[in-house]
Design goal:
By secondary structure, the chain is an all-alpha fold. Helix content is 65%, strand content 0%. The protein has seven helices and no strands. Helix 1 crosses helix 2 and helix 4 packs across helix 5. It is elongated and about 50 Å long.
């Protein structure tokens, strides 16, 4: 789930991949080691959006497209209102890649 196009890591998505979505959510207390492992990898919505932005930057670079706020939002599939919430992180990701971050909100 961390390779390729990002998917949010939640109990539901993990259970769905295993074909036991409802069962896994209801019985996680009976699987303490599995529960501990999964919970160590669960991510918040903000963490998921940051991971999607990182992926989108890579995608845009591979496609040779300009890195604009609109292209990032469209490629990552994140609404601009959520991008405002993680603006500092977006700035850090772009600065690490050598891009200037002069987006206007």
């Amino acid at each position: 789930m961390k390779k390729g196009k990002p998917e949010r890591i939640t109990w539901s998505t993990i259970g769905g991949k295993l074909g036991v979505s409802e069962w896994l959510s209801k019985k996680k207390e009976k699987l303490p080691m599995t529960k501990a492992y999964i919970e160590s990898d669960l991510e918040s919505l903000e963490e998921y959006h940051i991971r999607k932005i990182k992926w989108a930057v890579e995608e845009l670079q591979m496609q040779g497209k300009e890195i604009t706020l609109w292209n990032l939002a469209e490629t990552a599939g994140i609404k601009p209102k959520y991008m405002k919430e993680i603006y500092k992180e977006i700035e850090q990701v772009l600065n690490k890649k050598g891009y200037d971050c002069n987006f206007k909100w």
